[in-house]
């Protein structure tokens, strides 16, 4: 199985995961909305045994039946895990290269926000071409955002 890597924004928490296919899903439940601050979160479900934490994450007990890995240094949400399951979810955005993943289903649709479902008609802005952002980075450091 192909090995993929990922981790948090600051780099303190890192993982390796065996990924056999690129199917993922979007969760719209209120707990995930609150845990991430977003209207949904993209998850990749994997067997726990296929994930190796190179640096252990912190864990938040988010309910009586589940917990969520995260980095307490930078705050990056890294996943979701039921207590009594052989599987857990990693956030798609925490993979070093999330570009190959694609959604195959929506979960928690009772909390879905329809206004955010279809955004392809909105203007597209590139961060690497947005002058105010480029200026702020260049005034502070020689490196851009990662």
Write the layout of secondary structure elements.
Layout lengths: L2 E5 L6 E5 L4 E5 L2 H7 L4 E7 L3 E3 L4 E6 L2 E5 L8 E4 L4 E5 L10 E6 L23 H10 L6
Parallel strand pairs: 3-10
Antiparallel strand pairs: 1-2, 2-5, 3-4, 4-9, 6-7, 7-8, 8-9
What this model shows, in words?
The radius of gyration is 17 Å and the shape is globular. By secondary structure, it is mainly beta. The chain has helices at residues 30-36, 131-140, and strands at residues 3-7, 14-18, 23-27, 41-47, 51-53, 58-63, 66-70, 79-82, 87-91, 102-107. The chain has one domain (3-116): Metal Binding Protein, Guanine Nucleotide Exchange Factor, Chain A (Beta Complex). Helices cover 12% and strands 35% of the residues. It has two helices and ten strands; from the N terminus they run E-E-E-H-E-E-E-E-E-E-E-H. It comes from Erythrobacter rubeus.
> What is the SS-derived class?
mainly beta
Poorly predicted ranges (pLDDT <50, ≥5 residues)? Answer: none
> Approximately how much beta-strand content do the residues carry?
25-35%
Report the span from N to C terminus.
27 Å
Q: Helix tally?
A: 2
Q: Helix content range of the residues, please?
A: 10-25%
Order of helices and strands: EEEHEEEEEEEH
Radius of gyration: 17 Å
What is the average per-residue confidence, as pLDDT, rounded to a whole number? 95
State the domain count.
1
Keywords: Lyase, Metal-binding, Zinc
Protein name: GFA family protein
Pfam families: GFA
Family: Belongs to the Gfa family.
């Amino acid at each position: 199985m192909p090995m993929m890597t990922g981790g948090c924004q600051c780099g303190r928490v890192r993982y390796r995961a065996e990924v056999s296919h690129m199917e993922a899903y979007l969760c719209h439940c209120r707990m995930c909305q609150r845990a991430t601050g977003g209207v949904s979160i993209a998850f990749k479900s994997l067997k726990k045994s296929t994930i190796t934490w190179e640096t252990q994450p912190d864990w938040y007990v988010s309910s009586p039946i589940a917990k969520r890995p995260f980095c307490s240094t930078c705050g990056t949400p890294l996943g979701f895990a039921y207590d009594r399951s052989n599987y857990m979810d990693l956030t798609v955005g925490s993979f070093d290269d999330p570009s190959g993943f694609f959604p195959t289903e929506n979960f928690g649709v009772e909390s879905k926000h329809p206004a955010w479902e279809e955004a392809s008609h909105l203007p597209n802005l590139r961060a690497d071409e947005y002058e105010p952002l480029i200026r702020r980075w260049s005034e502070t450091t020689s490196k851009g955002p990662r």
